[in-house]
Automatic annotation (TrEMBL):
It is found in: Membrane. It comes from the Bacteria. PANTHER family: ACTINORHODIN TRANSPORTER-RELATED (PTHR42718:SF39), MAJOR FACILITATOR SUPERFAMILY MULTIDRUG TRANSPORTER MFSC (PTHR42718). Residues 18-470 form the Major facilitator superfamily (MFS) profile domain. Keywords: Membrane, Transmembrane, Transmembrane helix. One of its GO terms (cellular component) is membrane. It is a multi-pass membrane protein. Pfam families: MFS_1. It comes from Duganella guangzhouensis. GO terms for molecular function: transmembrane transporter activity. This is MFS transporter.
Length: 475
């Protein structure tokens, strides 16, 4: 449960250098969620990647990040934001190098999992660092830069990855896309070492709930592993048992957090959050939305490369309509829609995405494949997605008390990463199943059907959220 960090009355002298170092680290962290989306053929050719191994290399990063995000924030409370930020930057530099040097898919997967752990330690420290170094007059300016840049990084991974792989710098291809993190992280580490102010551990934050952290990490693994390996193995009994154990593990985590509070110990997550129906519905809705949105991002690039013969650079550029649509939707939601219609913006975004999925399905059924014919639907899909992404966390957090907002935000970030990993596993697994039968278009349509189902469920769940957030209610 993160502790409040006071905003200094006077700004810190090196605040913009701290901001630059923090932004570099956080952008790398988020960008790497999608950096390998267009690397499938290259990994298959160079390392002999199987479909399941590709899913682990792409989704394993998000899985490890989501599983460790909550404890990453707690470690910052206990050991200090500066110490954890420096440690995470060093870890991210090292694990990125290990990814770039991996001689086999098995070692690449292990390195990606470790990179995700480093990312989970890095990401929660950013906002706390901003609040620690900026005065109240400049904090808003910093956040005005931070938000859009992070939003761009979250959806630009395939575009950036495709450009780097296509350019084939020094003949390294996908290895350069991962290894370039290392010098960037080391430069940010040097700046942070000299400029980030020291912050002693919070007086009330004396321990880390390691048992709770282990329970949530194991449960995440039990959820995602069968979605990858189970589909390839024909859904044996162990896969269903693993999914059941994952559900039991998440339930046990909630109960364990309640026991810690009752015994006077500090939990990883404020358990009172789960007693609020709107917040619980928000958690479910976030899982459904990001499973659909992020999973389909990967399937689209796989379809273009493995089904239509596009190169990495072409597949990355083909994601630009979706990226541009996200910016439009985010601007509309943040500019006036969220203030005027509150949570109804989520239903609007979901309806637009469902319509876009139907449009994509129809375009695929037409004679011949044309990316130009798909582009308008991709823009519409991005607009709907941008509306949801820009509004969802704000609306969910409005359902909880102010003292629970920090804990709730951390949990939502973890759910976003975990559901992204689950969506990558589920939707790409459906695509690979039809690809093996020589029907890539059928695989894409099957993934589109799954995406539509997830979006319909999200639409239904969104009606359980409060229509007006605190911000809009007081406007």
């Amino acid at each position: 449960m993160p502790h409040a960090i006071a905003i200094p009355l006077a700004p810190y002298r090196h605040r913009w250098l701290v901001f630059a170092a923090m932004l570099a680290g956080e952008v790398m962290d988020v960008l790497d969620m999608g950096i390998l989306h267009v690397a499938g053929p290259a990994l298959e050719h160079e390392l002999g990647a199987t479909p399941a191994q590709l899913q682990w290399a792409v989704g394993g990063y998000a899985l490890a990040m989501g599983a460790c995000l909550i404890v990453g924030g707690r470690l910052g409370d206990v050991y200090g934001r500066r110490r954890m930020f420096l440690t995470a930057l060093a870890g991210f530099a090292l694990t990125s190098l290990l990814c770039a040097l991996a001689p086999t898919m098995h070692l690449l997967i292990v390195a990606r999992l470790l990179q995700g752990v480093a990312g989970a330690l890095l990401l929660p420290q950013g906002f706390a660092l901003l609040r620690a170094v900026f005065g109240p007059d400049e904090l808003g300016k910093a956040l005005a830069i931070f938000g859009p840049v992070m939003g761009l990084a979250a959806i630009a991974g395939p575009v950036v990855g495709g450009g780097i792989i296509a350019a084939d710098y020094f003949g390294l291809g996908w290895r350069f896309a991962l290894g370039v993190n290392t010098p960037v992280a080391l430069a940010a580490l040097l700046v942070a070492w000299r400029c980030v102010p020291r912050d002693p551990p919070q007086a009330l934050a004396g321990e880390v709930d390691l048992s709770g952290a282990a329970l949530i990490a194991i449960s995440c693994g039990l959820l995602v592993a069968p979605l990858i390996q189970g589909q390839e193995a024909g859904w044996p009994l162990w896969a269903w048992a693993s999914l059941g154990l994952a559900g039991a593990g998440f339930t046990s985590f909630v109960r364990q957090q309640r026991r810690r509070v009752h015994s006077g110990r500090v939990p990883l997550v404020e358990p009172g959050l789960f007693a609020k129906p709107a917040f619980s519905a928000g958690i479910l809705g976030m899982g459904l939305f990001f499973s659909a949105f992020i999973g389909m991002q990967l399937v689209f690039t796989l379809f273009l490369q493995l089904g239509q013969g596009y190169g990495a650079g072409e597949a990355g550029l083909a994601a630009l309509p979706l990226t541009g649509g996200c910016f439009i939707g985010s601007g509309l939601a943040g500019g006036f829609l969220l203030e005027r219609i509150g949570a109804r913006v989520l239903q609007l975004g979901a309806v637009l995405q469902i319509a876009a999925v139907a449009w994509l399905w129809r375009a695929l059924d037409s004679t011949g494949f044309s990316l130009t014919a798909l582009a308008p639907a991709l823009v519409l899909l991005g607009v709907g997605g941008g509306m949801v992404i820009a509004s969802l966390i704000t609306i969910i957090i409005s359902a909880v008390d102010e003292r629970e907002a920090g804990s709730g935000s951390g949990l939502l970030a973890a759910v976003q990463a975990i559901s992204s990993a689950a969506g990558i596993a589920l939707l790409s697994g459906l695509f690979f199943g039809r690809l093996a039968a020589g029907d890539p278009a059928g695989g894409y349509r099957l993934a589109l059907a799954a995406q539509a189902l997830l979006l319909i469920l999200f639409l239904l769940v969104s009606f359980a959220l409060p229509v007006r957030s605190r911000a809009t209610a007081t406007a």
